[in-house]
């Protein structure tokens, strides 16, 4: 269309420009997606680190894979209102749903082989907002950062004994957790365990005041220590059987929810650092576990206990874990939903 | 075609460029957020959901504007294959703009996630939890997202081809500012 030589030179320049725009756009996209950065800590890499040599637990959560569902209520006593305007703290009963679980990647693990026990919980407020959380029984977390957690998974899966030593040198905070794992008493019941949120969140009260907090669920059941050997004798699935039987025979089980308020300067970004015992605590309510159901057809199966699903009045702090957990839990959910045929439901309630 | 406009109305052009910027941002936020465990994951996902829902509203407005104002005709001397490509790609672009946010919303609903946008705005769930539906919609959102990005790159290449090489005035019909050395549409 343009016969002059000048124009065809500018035409070539235009083609080069178009190619550069497309190539640049595609390259920027690939970079953003992490395809050019194999070192980036992606949810896929975290899940690969969680995957045991025997293979992924298809259809199950990629961690805390063994668990049992419950339903009940969260009975707020109204004391939480001074800290947070979230509706779940207003005096009254809010529907609760959750999952007792073991910190293992094996859905068929023998109970007595798993040190960490957990509780996933979802509390629904009347205005349709939800508060989801996932807590564990140690009083502080094993490591300070998500990267360190990844490194811990890699080191503990390494057959070379030096790997753990190197890890502990690089992450000295792990020593406190190792000591807890070695010395803390075992119990023979999910109902006798405390469950700690560990991560710090920011509560916002009605006047806009902000409070950095952590929370725990403390059992009202008497804690009876047992040896690991004794627990092992009771059977591989004793905890689920015991809890079902306990609720059936003695009725609902209760935990007091206690929020601990940070003083200025307390470490909020590091869940491996417990706050001093002297910090102010506020009892905000009681979790009442009324009904136990197997996970396979139970209501907790479909719930991702993503700790960043929060009502207005609660938000994340500078603690890097909730975001990392949200990202990895999402990936775990996507995987297990796609693998649902490997963990078929037995009931007829769901298609 | 005597009643067809010579170029898109100013409101259409403004909306085109606003949505273009937002949609390109959505591609990058989307692939960036799912590949990180860093704290930015949370603001990115919040922006992605909020912007995605906003874009769904905007595309409805945009289609209504197109219905009202119409679209300028393609140059008469454009080869038939290019005309077909232009029509088809625009159909696919509009289709993607409508379908992508719906797939995104649907996959969240089917995973029983509450959909909460910036400012605490809640979008009520219209689908029950379902592993199968979540997996289907999630895959569709991801793969259609890649296809949509490729389509936008193609659209950009075609726009530059019209503006820089063919200089047939097609780019001028949507441009916000006059181009240097532009020629008027061939008619």
Q: How does this model look, in words?
A:
- The complex is a heterodimer of chains A (351) and B (187).
- Chain A is of the alpha+beta class.
- Chain A has 8 helices and 12 strands.
- In chain A, the strands form 2 sheets. In chain A, strands 1, 2, 3, 4, 6, 7, 8, 10, 11 and 12 form a 10-stranded antiparallel sheet that branches. A two-stranded antiparallel sheet of chain A has the order 5-9.
- In chain A, helix 3 (146-156) runs antiparallel to helix 4 (161-170).
- Chain A is globular and about 90 Å long.
- The model of chain A is unreliable at 1-5 (pLDDT under 50).
- Chain B is mainly α and 187 residues long.
- Chain B has one domain (10-167).
- A two-stranded antiparallel ribbon of chain B has the order 1-2.
- In chain B, strand 1 and strand 2 (122-123) form a beta hairpin.
- In chain B, helix 2 (41-69) crosses helix 3.
- The longest helix of chain B is centred in the C-terminal third of the chain and has 36 residues, at 131-166.
- Residues 182-187 of chain B have low confidence and may be disordered.
- Classes of the chains: A alpha+beta (351), B mainly alpha (187).
- Chain B: Keywords: Cell membrane, Electron transport, Heme, Iron, Membrane, Metal-binding, Transmembrane, Transmembrane helix, Transport.
């Amino acid at each position: 269309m343009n016969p002059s030589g000048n124009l065809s030179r500018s035409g070539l320049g235009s083609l080069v420009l178009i190619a550069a725009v497309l190539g640049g756009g595609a390259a920027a996209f690939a970079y953003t997606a992490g395809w050019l950065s194999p070192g980036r800590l992606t949810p896929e890499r975290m899940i690969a680190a969680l995957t045991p040599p025997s293979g992924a637990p298809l259809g199950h959560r990629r961690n805390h894979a063994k668990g049992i569902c419950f339903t009940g209520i969260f009975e707020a006593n109204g004391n939480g209102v001074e800290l947070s305007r979230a509706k779940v703290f207003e005096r009254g009963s809010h529907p609760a749903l959750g999952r007792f679980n073991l910190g293992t990647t094996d859905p068929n693990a023998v109970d007595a082989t798993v040190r960490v026990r957990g509780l996933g919980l979802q509390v629904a407020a009347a205005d349709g907002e939800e508060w989801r959380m996932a807590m564990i029984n140690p009083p502080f977390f094993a490591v300070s950062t998500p990267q360190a957690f990844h490194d811990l998974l890699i080191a503990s899966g390494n057959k070379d004994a030096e790997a753990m030593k190197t890890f502990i040198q690089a992450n000295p905070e792990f020593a406190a957790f190792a000591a807890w794992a070695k010395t803390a008493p075992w119990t023979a019941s999910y109902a006798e365990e405390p469950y700690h949120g560990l991560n710090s969140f920011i509560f916002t009260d009605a006047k806009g005041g902000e409070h950095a907090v952590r929370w725990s669920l403390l059992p009202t059941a008497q804690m009876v220590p047992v040896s690991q050997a004794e627990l092992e004798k009771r059977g591989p699935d004793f905890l689920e059987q015991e809890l079902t039987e306990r609720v059936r025979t003695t009725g609902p089980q209760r935990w007091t929810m206690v929020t601990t308020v940070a003083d200025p300067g307390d470490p909020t970004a590091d869940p491996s650092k417990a706050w001093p015992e002297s910090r102010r605590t506020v009892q905000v309510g009681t979790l009442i576990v009324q009904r136990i159901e197997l996970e396979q057809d139970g209501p907790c199966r479909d719930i991702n206990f993503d700790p960043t699903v929060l009502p207005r009045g609660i938000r994340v702090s500078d603690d890097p874990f909730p975001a990392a957990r949200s990202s990895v839990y999402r990936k775990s959910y996507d995987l297990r939903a796609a693998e649902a045929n490997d963990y078929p439901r037995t009931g007829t309630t769901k298609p | 075609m005597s009643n067809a406009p010579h170029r898109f109305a100013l409101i259409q052009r403004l909306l085109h460029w606003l949505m273009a910027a937002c949609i390109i941002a959505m591609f990058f936020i989307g692939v960036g957020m799912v590949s990180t465990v860093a704290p930015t994951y949370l603001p990115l996902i919040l922006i992605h959901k909020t912007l995605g829902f906003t874009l769904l509203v905007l595309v409805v407005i945009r289609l209504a504007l197109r219905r009202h104002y119409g679209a300028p005709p393609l140059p008469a001397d454009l080869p038939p294959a290019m005309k077909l490509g232009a029509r088809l790609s625009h159909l696919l672009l509009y289709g993607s703009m409508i379908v992508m946010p719906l797939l995104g919303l649907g996959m969240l609903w089917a995973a029983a996630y509450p959909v909460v946008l910036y400012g605490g705005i809640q979008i009520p769930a219209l689908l029950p939890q379902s592993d199968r539906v979540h997996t289907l919609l999630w895959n569709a959102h991801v793969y259609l997202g890649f296809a949509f990005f490729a389509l936008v790159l193609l659209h950009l290449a075609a726009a530059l081809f019209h503006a820089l090489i063919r200089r047939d005035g097609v780019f001028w019909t949507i441009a916000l500012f006059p181009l240097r050395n532009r020629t008027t549409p061939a008619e």
